[in-house]
Model the fold of this input.
Amino acid sequence: MKIGIIGLPASGKTTIFNSLTRGKAEVGGFGAARSANVGVAHVPDERVDILTGMFQSKKTVYAEVTYVDLPGSSSGDLFEGEAMAHLQQVDAILHVARAFEDESVPHLEGSVDYKRDIEKVAFDILFADIALLERRIERLTGSLKSMKVANRDEAVKNIETLKRIQSDLENGVALRDRDLDAGETKAISDTFTLSSLPLLVAMNIGEDDISNTADLEIELATLLEGRSTGGAAICGRLEAELVGMPEDEESEMRTGLEAGESGLSRMIKLSYRVLGLSSFLTVGEDETRAWTINIGASAPKAAGVIHSDIERGFIRAETVAYDDFIECGTMAEARNRGLFRQEGREYVVQDGDIVNFLFSV
Done:
């Protein structure tokens, strides 16, 4: 999973990036960054830790999320140049919206208003798609005269379809909130659109607001009622400081500050929920590992996450639910209780399933 981080100047997006990836990217300056910052975060999963101990695995591998802190712009134009190239490769957008006050860090608009900023970025995403479809329509229209009749009829249909989609965008309907019919899907299949990407929002709050996190998130949710959207309130500055500490010190500080669950853990959970993801597990003496799949993935599709050959040669899956295994304590006991199952191609892998795939190629 790859998530692109965007934000208006002085929103603290690079601070949030550092807090999520334990990175040390330079913050401040508010001008245009020369290139993107890229970092990888391990998905916290207590199940992986417990299973590693039970199987005495030599290696532990967590699921991973790649975060891309997109190049900044002093003008506030988030979707230009290198940024768009990176966004074409991500699975979701994370918008960092500033909600902290700091007189030494002026806001582009002269005041801090996270609701205004969220609305502005949402509009900019729609506007970028409107402009993109306009260019697509112009290219198709300009090439009509040189087309054969059959191709021309198809192109005219596509132009009409694209205009219909464009009209919805102009009325504020993001593509993630729209059900595309077969014709619309075909017409837009070779066109990258920003508003089709899931949208996450990190409200970057000040330390004085940490105790109000729950109330702020309820308020934030009212702005993010569309499909494939969600938000969380995070104090980026505090999180960036805490993740730089040894684990025991970080835990002690969180308790003392009543900072609660880490920002990374909360953003990961939000990302999984909004993107419709879950994890299954593989175990053994050599390695215990978590694998990310789409909710509803069949056993062969889950096998393909490990290797395409396993999906191609899939025979069956041997599986036991994590909670059942913990209750049993061993695979042998899970078998005795009938909880260790043989599943075929139609089986839908569940979150926390411990799976062994049998295959032949």
Observations:
- Residues 114-142 form the longest helix (29 residues).
